[in-house]
Amino acid sequence: MSKMNNSHSNHKVSLVGEVTIPGDKSISHRAIMFGSLATGVTKVTNFLLGEDCLSTIDCFRKLGVHIDVQKDEVLVYGNGIEGLKESESVLDVGNSGTTARLLMGIISGLPFHSVIIGDESIGKRPMKRVTKPLKMMGSQIDGRDDATYTPISIRGGQLKGISYESPVSSAQVKSSILLAGLFADGTTIVSEPEKSRDHTERMLKAFGCELDVSGNTVSITGGQQLKATNVTVPGDISSAAFFLVAGSIIPNSEILLKNVGVNPTRIGILTVLDRMGADITLENEKVVNGEPIADLRVKSAKLKGTIIGGEEIPTCIDELPILALAASQAEGETIIKDAEELRVKETDRIQTVVTELTKLGVSIEATKDGMIIQGSNKALNGANVASHGDHRMGMMLSVASLLADGETFIENTECIAVSFPNFKEQLQELLK
Ligand SMILES: O=C(O)C1=C[C@@H](OP(=O)(O)O)[C@@H](O)[C@H](O)C1
Ligand SMILES: C=C(OP(=O)(O)O)C(=O)O
Predict the structure, then answer these.
(1) Each residue of 290-334: pLDDT tens digit?
(2) Binding site listing for phosphoenolpyruvate
(3) How far apart are CA 246 and CA 107, in angstroms?
(4) Which of 86, 130, 137, 346 is the most buried (most CB within 10 A)?
(5) What percent of the chain clears pLDDT 70, i.e. is strictly above it?
(6) What residues contact residue 92 under an 8 Å CB cut-off, 6+ apart?
């Protein structure tokens, strides 16, 4: 039980200071994966030393790649695709859906047998969204419920390119198929209903690959070699989101977030908060390794409700839990729709967000594909709440506890280490 004890009975806390946001989880995963496929030494700076990305390192070490984790950088000694060898043990992705799905694409192209397992949460998350197209390409895959759930076994080998229309807007699905396409004969084309994050497309180009991107469709031709490069990982905007919302809804606050990635496919949190009336400014904008970066300055502001849906959803899919908290403090109603993907994240985030915010006194109801939140200026009431082992729930509830009268106890905040190991310390340091 982790105690975020808000002893200020009328919660007169404010948040003031500067936060160093840890490296982007999506980009950190890809730097290890692509460096493992490349020829030469890839140097990764500002790598996210969170549990999910450490799972990726562990899996590729088991596949024979030498990876050296130093204090300020990670070195990946790639020997090209031929450098990957059959693992003597199962590949454990821990809590990481990104590791699981992108790894399946890569090992589908490798001429040996692999078994992928994960934690209890991963064991409930749908993998058929990648195993189905990968089998269409020629990968021999089996697993629970017809390769829907882990443990999943894959014997990779001769793949042929396919043209695939994904039924979901998912960068994990898109990336898995494109990565298998690297090994396939011919060209592989992937399209999706709405554009999802494009870190794979950007980074494969940085590793010397050619891709064709046209709207929501990406194509790649097999047989290309990756060349090692240096990757500087920007701060993770999905982690910054907790401070963007906290700085907006907690009175008399001002927080500066340094070197945060502001990739256009990831900035839904900024466009939504701006629409709600937040006071957020971008400073020192630049582009590093093909990824836009900026300092973000957030100040307290009175928010108003909004509607979040359609093509905006993939650009803020991981930020919807903390946006639900923001909505609880806004004036008027907020509707989140077209977000059924929330039901297959680390938890069913529609159910867990509604359950836990209701305990804190928020007027919120679940819908099939989202939620409806009635904003209020009434303080939240302290309660015993739970993260359900979901890192983004743990961080959202930690911010919520600062707004609640009385004490709030959060069951299991250890899971926050999946993406933001020093989150609690960073939040506590801002408390004034
Ligand atoms: O590609 C990635 O790195 C990710 C994509 C998203 O999942 P989907 O693309 O499956 O929605 C996101 O939820 C996840 O945190 C990371
Ligand atoms: C869903 C997430 O990650 P993953 O799918 O990699 O587990 C997340 O970080 O919120």
Answers:
(1) 899 999 999 999 999 999 999 999 999 999 999 999 999 999 999
(2) 25, 97, 125, 172, 349, 392
(3) 41
(4) 130
(5) 97
(6) 55, 58, 59, 117, 118
Q: Say if residues 372 and 365 touch (Cβ distance below 8 Å).
A: yes
Binding pocket residue ranges, ligand 2, CB within 6 Å: 25, 52, 96-98, 318, 345-346, 392, 419
Domains of the chain by start residue, with CATH: 2-23+234-430 (3.65.10.10), 25-232 (3.65.10.10)
Rg of the Cα trace of the chain?
21
Query: How far apart, in whole angstroms, are the C-alpha atoms of residue 309 and residue 54?
Result: 33
Give yes or no for a contact between 430 and 256, defined as CB atoms under 8 angstroms apart. no
Give me ligand 2 centre to Cα 419, in Å. Answer: 9
Consecutive 10-residue averages of pLDDT for the chain (432 residues): 41 90 98 98 98 98 98 95 94 98 98 98 98 98 97 96 98 98 98 98 97 98 97 98 98 97 98 98 94 97 98 98 98 98 98 98 98 94 97 98 95 97 97 92
Predicted structure pTM score: 0.97
Whether the complex's predicted ipTM surpasses the cut of 0.95? yes
Q: How far is the CA of 186 from the centre of ligand 2 (A)?
A: 31
Structure tokens at 343: 């039901």
Q: How many CB atoms lie within 10 A of CB 425?
A: 8
pLDDT of residue 205: 97
Q: What is the Å distance from ligand 2's center to 349 Cα? A: 11
Cα(196) to ligand 2 centroid in Å equals: 14
CA-proximal residue: ligand 2, atom 10 (nearest) = 318
Sheet of 16-20, strands arranged across: 16-20, 254-261, 291-299, 279-288
- Which residues carry a binding-site annotation for 3-phosphoshikimate? 25-26, 30, 170, 172, 318, 345
Is 318 an active-site residue? yes
Question: So what's the pLDDT on residue 293?
Answer: 98
Annotated catalytic residue within 58, 318, 348, 369 = 318
| Nearest protein Cα to ligand 1, atom 14 | 98
